[in-house]
């Protein structure tokens, strides 16, 4: 079993949604956008020689496996990067919620999040804390928490 695993969840990237759409429809469109982003990430990682699997919370088997917790863990144990797409598969839930949920489900040691309009990794939210410390370099052996 590898000493470290890598999994990612893709966000929608601020998909513009028509105001006339109801919330659930807009959220499902966002889930599809996360799947497009997951495929782009998968392609980029594979071009760097990494073995990846994309799992989707909504059924779209032609391009992604269905999300199955035990299968995701098995992929990770084999050293594959797992990319989670389509959030939780439920409207009204953010991809932040999905990231936290998937991290708990796979027993992740750490959850790192990349957000819009944030220029790096910080020890806390720089928008909420002016004293947030930006990390110039990250390593797998850095303490978390």
Separation of the first and last Cα atoms: 24 Å
Structural class call reads: alpha/beta
Main sheet: strands, sense, barrel:
4 strands, parallel
Quaternary state reads single chain
Question: How much beta, percentage-wise?
Answer: 5-15%
Unreliable spans are none
**Average pLDDT:** 86
Please explain how this structure is put together.
There is one protein chain. With 145 residues, the protein is an alpha/beta fold. The protein has 3 helices and 6 strands. The protein has a 4-stranded parallel sheet, sandwiched between helices. It has a two-stranded antiparallel ribbon with strand order 5-6. The radius of gyration is 16 Å and the shape is globular. The protein starts with 6 loop residues before the first strand and ends in a 10-residue tail after the last strand. The mean pLDDT is 86.
Helix and strand layout, with pairings?
Blueprint: E1 7-9, H1 23-47, E2 52-56, E3 65-66, H2 69-77, E4 81-85, H3 95-105, E5 121-122, E6 134-135
Parallel strand pairs: 1-4, 2-3, 2-4
Antiparallel strand pairs: 5-6
């Amino acid at each position: 079993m590898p000493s470290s695993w890598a999994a990612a969840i893709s966000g929608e990237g601020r998909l513009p949604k028509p105001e006339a759409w109801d919330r659930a429809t807009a959220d499902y469109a966002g889930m599809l956008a996360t799947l497009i982003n997951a495929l782009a990430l998968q392609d980029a990682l594979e071009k760097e020689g990494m073995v990846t699997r994309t799992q989707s919370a909504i059924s779209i088997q032609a391009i992604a496996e269905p999300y199955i917790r035990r299968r995701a863990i098995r992929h990770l144990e084999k050293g594959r990067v797992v990319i989670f797409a389509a959030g939780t598969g439920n409207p009204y839930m953010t991809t932040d919620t999905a990231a936290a949920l998937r991290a708990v489900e796979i027993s992740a040691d750490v959850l790192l999040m990349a957000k819009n309009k944030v220029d790096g990794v910080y020890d806390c939210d720089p928008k909420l804390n002016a004293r947030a410390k930006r990390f110039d370099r990250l390593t797998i052996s850095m303490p978390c928490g």
